[in-house]
Design a protein that fits this description.
The protein has three helices and eight strands, in the order αββββαββαββ. By secondary structure, the chain is an alpha+beta fold. The structure holds zinc ion. Zinc ion (ZN) binds next to α3.
């Protein structure tokens, strides 16, 4: 899955004691934007990756959002969007969301009709 591979590489550009979340939005095989979670401190998150990403995308209509969580030990964890991000993605016209689920890198999927 090339977008998850891309997100994993991007996640390595950021360090955090616990976890880095990266989100990109694509349409027609092109990246419209990429975002990261911002940190207030080691135990608190500021802006979520999905919101950071949406802020960089002018038109997300019909696009797909891809989300990956990398833990500090390099393993991949569940990156299902929270309710607030889910609502923001939906409002931006995002059609499909795919996110990492487990350390084995299975992929979850949600479709927004
Ligand atoms: Zn969120």
């Amino acid at each position: 899955m090339k977008w998850f591979n891309y997100l994993y590489r991007e996640s390595l550009k950021h360090e955090h004691p616990k976890t880095v979340v990266v989100c990109c939005i694509t349409r027609g095989g092109r990246i419209l934007g990429t975002g990261f979670n911002k940190f207030k401190g080691p135990n608190s998150f500021g802006r979520h990756a999905e919101i950071d990403c949406l802020n960089r995308v002018t038109d997300g209509y019909g696009a797909t959002a891809w989300i990956l969580r990398r833990r500090a030990d390099g393993s991949v964890g569940i990156a299902k969007p929270c309710k607030k991000c889910e609502a923001a993605l939906r409002e931006a016209g995002i059609k499909r969301v795919r996110y990492t689920e487990t350390m084995k890198i299975e992929y979850g999927e949600e479709k927004y009709a």
